[in-house]
Amino acid sequence: MEVETQTRQDRLGCARCGQVRLGIIEQQRTFEVGFEAPLVVRVESTGCERCGRLAKPAAVARAAAMAALRVVAMSGRVNGESFRFLRATMGLQAKEVAHMLGLGVGTISRWENDVRDLDPRAWTLLACLALEYIDGDGDPRTKKVLDAVREPHAVPAQLEVRV
Ligand SMILES: [Zn+2]
Known about the structure:
By secondary structure, the chain is α+β, with helices and mostly antiparallel strands. Helix content is 48%, strand content 12%. The protein is built from 7 helices and 2 strands; from the N terminus they run H-E-E-H-H-H-H-H-H. The chain has helices at 2-12, 57-73, 80-89, 94-101, 105-112, 120-134, 141-150; strands at residues 22-31, 39-48. Strands 1-2 form a two-stranded antiparallel ribbon. A hairpin with a 7-residue loop joins strand 1 and strand 2.
């Protein structure tokens, strides 16, 4: 499906300006992530060399955001802004994160605004969730562990293992 769309677009050229040949264009996205300076992500993608229209703007936006998310998740820069970036880039509401961590939503707000020192362990959990989110993980283990801590599962009396 994706391939067909791309081929068709190449044949028809730019939907905006009619330029026949598409090329590789570079875009720059800037994210406020709680580092000393904004994080700049350069993305190369198919687009119109004349007017700059991207063939797949949503994919470009997502790829840039995921690249930034990975860097932030692995950065160890524990602060309110990086916490907010991790949360918001995963599309999570503050109240969802609060519920996940068994905290009041006010606590999340105070952390994100640096009114209160945030718990590095909570930041770590969010970063692990972010890494699983980036990988589009069909097995989001961190989320499952958090859910299980809130509502423990039935456990088997014995296990069988083959080696
Ligand atoms: Zn164009």
